[in-house]
Design a protein that fits this description.
Layout lengths: L3 E2 L9 H12 L19 H15 L5 E6 L2 H13 L3 E6 L2 H10 L4 E7 L20 E5 L1 E2 L4 E2 L9 E5 L16 E5 L10 E6 L16 H6 L9 H17 L1 H22 L3 E3 L10 E6 L7 H10 L2 E2 L10 E4 L6 H18 L1
Parallel strand pairs: 1-13, 3-4, 3-5, 5-8, 8-9
Antiparallel strand pairs: 2-10, 6-7, 9-10, 11-12, 12-14
Helix pairs in contact: 1-6, 2-6, 3-4, 6-7, 7-9
Bound molecules: 4'-deoxy-4'-aminopyridoxal-5'-phosphate.
4'-deoxy-4'-aminopyridoxal-5'-phosphate binds next to helix 3.
Amino acid sequence: MKKHNFSAGPCILAPQVIENTANAVRDLNGIGLSLIEISHRTKYFEPIMEEAQKNFKELIGAPDNYHVLFLGGGASLQFAMVPFNLMEKKAGYIETGVWAKKAIKEAKLFGEVEVLASSADSNFSYFPKNINIPSDLDYVHITTNNTIYGTEIHHDIDCPVTLVADMSSDIMSRPVDVTKYGMIYGGAQKNLGPAGVTFVLIREDILGKVSRQIPTMLDYRTHIKEGSMFNTPPVFAIYAVNETLKWMKQMGGVEKMYELNKAKAQLLYDEIDRNPMFMGTAEKESRSLMNICFVMAPEYKEKEAEFLEFAKSQGMEGLKGHRLVGGFRASTYNALPIESVKALIDCMREFEKKNA
Ligand code: PMP
């Protein structure tokens, strides 16, 4: 039996994505060859790359002056590529967790970093509000969903300078106004597909403004010019991303994902708030729709391992919280069915009956 997969990433993918990708590995569209044993520069693979870029733009609603790139190196390489390509002197960063801190660390190698807001004072349990953004910055960097802490910003901020967003863990979970961003990037391995590919959505006019030399492979302009085919792209991951994008389109697009994500999160947060054995860790306004973090209430603290064991016996996987927060984290990405959330809630209620 398939388990309820609450993993934070890599994570659950839609069944048809796994099925279609597995078939393409066996035999791509009946050509008598596997997806992973052909050149990327063929009439077999090129249309897949083009379709993935087109589907990405269509689903997120990006105007024509944005380019979609599929690169290697993970979101972590983007932490360095962003300042390498965009920072002449100074950039603003919003410090909302470990991933934001890692992005800040890399940016400091290239210039001055101004931390515009931080929630470090409370173990990143909220997303800072009313952030004042000076206009003398080369760009501002934001992590829209904080995978480890379960906090998320639920709107697109107005920014007087280029806004760059790490959307690794909430890409296409809610509609965004792309025009408010100069660049959106992330590892694909949550809402978009398997590990191995990084998506970058970028507006070309933000490039070419820094005086330093940029190695060819780290220059976004190289990848724009070559359509993400400067070097061998991660063909397997890109195929699965395109299957995920096709699945999302069939489901009704990002609006539909948002509706389902809100419904799933509401059910689970309601149970966390109702059940005396559990409590949420993020401030209510900042609660993530993607990573729902909770712990045992103080009087049941010693029951944590027992609950995890019990949940596991009921077919739940990936529920252990990150060590920096503890407790539990239920990741409710796009592909997680609402039935899995209901099964987890049943589990929490049954545990309450046994213990409270
Ligand atoms: N940013 C966020 C918000 C993440 O959740 C992660 C990975 N969990 C990363 C960046 C790093 O991504 P990668 O492993 O692709 O480098």
